[in-house]
Amino acid sequence: MALSSFDLSYVLYVGVAFVVARIFYDLLFSPLRRIPGPLAAKYTDFYRAYLATKGNVDRHMRAWHQKWGSAVRVGPNTISISDPDLIRVIYTTRNPWRKTNMYRPNDVVVNGQRMQNIFNTADEDFHTKYTKPIRGFWTLPKMLEAEPIMDETLCELITHIDNRFASTGYVCKMDEWVAYYAWDAAANISFGRNYGFMDQAADVENIIAESTAGLKYFTPVSQIPWLDEWLDKNPVWRIGPRPLVNGVLYTIKILTEYQQQVASGAAKRKPVDLFIDKYNSLKDTVDYVDDQQILNWLMLNVLAGGDSTAGAMRAPAYHLLKNPSVCEKMVAELRSANLTLPVPQWKEISQLPYFDAVMRESMRISPAVGLILEREVPKEGLELSDGRFIPAGTKVGINPCVITRDVGVFGEDVDTFRPERWLRRKGESEQGHAQRVRRMHECTEMMFGHGSRVCMGKHMSKLEMYKMFATLYVNFDVRITDPNHRWKWISSQLFGLADALQLIRDLFPSGVLPQNDHKLQPPHRDLSPERILCFETKGITHCVLKIADFGSMQYHDDQAHHQRGFETCMGSAYRAPELLTGEPAHNSDLWSFGCIIIHFIVWYHGGRALVNALSALSSAEEEEECLGAYTDDDKFFKYGNLMATQLGGEVIGQGKDVPNTIVLKESIKQEMSKYLEQGKSHFVRDIIGLVKKDLLQADAGELASCSDAYCRSTLSS
Asked: Where is the Protein kinase domain (predicted)?
C-alpha cells in the first residue's frame, strides 16, 4: 500500500522534530556542553570524518587546542585531550580503559562473521589471551637477537642504492625506497625472505597499494564506525577497499611451505629464530594456537612492521633533507664514531646523542599517527585538571600529533625541527635533563600507543629506523635535489599530471646533468628541468609544463606570476592535431603531453638508439625550427609513425593530410597499455599510471581532470 502525502509529511515532521530536539539537547542539557569545540562537531561526527578525508585533521586539532585549551569537543560524544598528565590515566595498564568502536572497521569478515584481532579488539580478555604467548618475543633484548637478520636486508638496501643511484647519478625517491626497505625488512625478520620490493624497485603484487587503500578507508570511516556496516561490511553490496589479498596469499604460501619443510625435516634454519619459528613452536605448548592463528600473527607482523614503520621512517628522511645543517652535524657524529661498516650495530648507534636526538625529533614533529587514540571513559568518569567532569561512556583520547606540540613539554618553538631540544642544556643538571627528556619521550612515544595496548612492535620499528638511517648516512652522501620542494604530509596521497611532471623533473635535476651527459640527458628537451615550472599554493607544490599550452606551444615565461608569454611556436611535431584542423580543443594540451610521455617511455626502454630508429620510420618532412629549438627527435611523432588516417580537406592552406584525432589517441592508449603490461620498471609504470587517466578520458572539446593543478594553471595563466 502506497504512503499518502499526509503519511510522508508526518514522517518528515517527525524527522525534523527529532533533529531539532537533538540540537536543543546538545545545547542545553548535554553533559559535554561546557567543553568547547567547533560548532559542527557538537552535532555530528561527519565533520571530523570530512577533515580526515582531506588528510589534515591533525592540523585542525592542533589549532583547536591552541584556541580552546586541553579539552576540545570534536564530536557529539568525543573529547580530544592534550594534557600530558592524563596519558597514564587514559591509557592505564591496570584496569585499562576499553577501546572504542573506532577500530572495528579493521575487522575482517570471514563466512559472514567479523573476525577481530589483537589490534582492533575492544575485548581485553581476548587481547590478553592472544598477546600473552608472544609478548616476550617483542622485547628489546629479543629483537636485538634478530639484528643479523636486519643487517641482511640493510646490505641489500646498500647494494641497490649504490647500483641504481650512487653509481649512476639518478635521483632516489626516498619515500618509495623507505617503504620498500620497511616492508622487505618486516618480511625477512618474520619468515626469512622478503617480498622483493627492493629487488624489483616496485610494489610487488600491489601489496603496498592495497595496504595504503585500506588506511585511506580506515582514516575517515573510523571517525563514524557505524558507516562500516553499510560500506565495507555490507553483506549485499560491499563498498570498500580491496582486502590485502596478495599479502595474505603470499604469507599463506610461505607458511604452507614452512610447515611442509618442518614436517619433512628439510627446513633451512637461519642463525637466529625467525618469528615464524617462534610462533610455530607455540603449537606444542599453547592449546589454542593453530595455523590460522600463526597466520594472523604473521600478517600483523608484516602490516605493522611494513606500513606503520614506513610512515615513521619518512619523517627523518624528509627533515634531514630539508635541514642540511642538522644533517651535516649528524653525519659528522656518525663518521667520527668508528662504527661497524657497512651496517652499524645498535649498541654503537644507541650511544650517539645527536643521532638519537634527530630520530626522536623526527618522530615528535611528524608522528606516524594523526588520529585520536580513542578510549571509553569508565563508570567513575574522568575529572580534568581544571575540575570539569566527563561522564562515563564518553569517547576520549589523545592525538599524537597534538601532544607532541605541547609548549609546556617541548618549549615555545614546537613547530621547529630542532634536535637540540633533546640534548642537555648549558647549566642543566643530569637529573633535570633526564626528567625533562623522560616527559618529552612519553609524549613522543604516543605514536606507538601507551599502557596495556601499546604497540608490541615499537622496538622493531625503532631498531629498523635507527639502523637504516645510520647505515644510509655513514655510507652515502645524501642531498635533496630541490631544496624548495615540500612533501605533502597527508593521510592519503592524491596524484595527477602535476605529480607526474614533478616525478620526471626530480629524475633529471639540473644540478647533476653536466656530470654525465650520456646517462643523465633528458629524453626530450621539454622534459628538462628548466621546462617544468613548479610553484606552491597553500603549502602544496604544483608543477606544469612551461610548454604545451593547448598544443600551440605558448610559453610560460613569467615564473613569478605564472603568466602566459606571447611567443608561439607552431613548428613542434607533437602539437595537437586539432590545431592543424583549425579546431583547437581544451584537451589539446593533454595530447601534447601524451606525445612527450610516449617519447620518454621509448627512450627509457631503448635509449636514444631506439628513438632514432623509430624516428627514421617517419616519412614526414622536417618541420622548420622555431625559437632555435632542435627538432631531430621530433620526427618520432610524425603522422606516419602514429597510424595517421586521412581526414580530407586542406589544413590551414596546406595540401597535407592530417591525422584523425581519435585514431591518434587510441594509438597512445595502446602504447601505454603495452608498456604498462610489459614494463619492468617501477618508475615507468608509475609515470604511465599518473598520466593515463588524465590523458585518455577526455573527449574532444572537454577539459580532462579540470581539478588538476596542471589544467587549473594553464587555464588561469
From this structure: 378-717
